[in-house]
C-alpha cells in the first residue's frame, strides 16, 4: 500500500489531504463543496496542463451530469476565493481562450 504521505499534496501554502478530503490554505482549513474539491484535485493532479471548460466539466461532473460547462467558471472562482483570497499565492491560472491550469 502507498504511504499516507503520498495522499497529501503540498504546493506553497496549499495543502490537500486526499484521505480526508480536507484542504488547507496557509494552515487554515478551507471548507469546499464536493465539486469544488474534485475540480481542485483534478487540476492539482494534472499540473501545468491547460484544460478548457468542456473537458473539466466532463472529467469532474461526468458525462451524465446536468448543467453545462459555464458552471466550471463559477466553481473556479469559488475555489480561488477560498484558497487565494487571503494568500499571496496564486494557484489556478486562466489561460485566455484556452482554459485553466494549476501552476506547479
| Termini gap | 26 Å
Unreliable residue runs: none
Structural class from helices and strands?
alpha+beta
What portion of residues is helical?
Answer: 25-40%
Strand order of the largest sheet: 1-2-3-4
Overall pLDDT, averaged?
Answer: 92
Number of strands: 6
Radius of gyration, taken over Cα atoms and rounded to an integer in Å = 13 Å
State the oligomer: single chain
Number of helices: 3
Strand coverage percent: 15-25%
Shape: globular
What would you say this structure looks like, in words?
The protein is built from three helices and six strands, in the order ββββαααββ. The mean pLDDT is 92. With 104 residues, the protein is of the alpha+beta class. Helix 2 (53-61) packs across helix 3.
Provide a short characterization of the protein structure:
This protein has 104 residues and is an alpha+beta fold. The protein has helices at 34-45, 53-61, 70-83, and strands at 8-11, 14-17, 22-25, 28-30, 92-95, 99-102. The chain is globular, with a radius of gyration of 13 Å.
Amino acid at each position: 500500500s502507498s504511504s499516507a504521505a503520498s495522499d497529501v499534496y503540498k504546493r506553497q501554502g496549499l495543502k490537500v489531504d486526499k484521505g480526508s478530503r480536507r484542504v488547507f490554505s496557509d494552515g487554515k482549513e478551507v471548507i469546499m463543496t464536493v465539486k469544488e474539491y474534485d475540480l481542485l484535485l483534478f487540476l492539482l493532479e494534472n499540473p501545468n496542463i491547460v484544460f478548457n471548460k468542456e473537458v473539466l466539466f466532463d472529467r469532474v461532473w461526468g458525462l451524465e451530469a446536468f448543467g453545462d460547462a459555464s458552471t466550471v467558471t463559477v466553481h473556479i472562482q469559488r475555489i480561488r476565493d477560498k484558497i487565494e483570497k487571503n494568500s499571496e499565492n496564486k494557484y489556478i491560472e486562466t489561460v485566455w481562450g484556452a482554459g485553466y491550469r494549476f501552476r506547479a
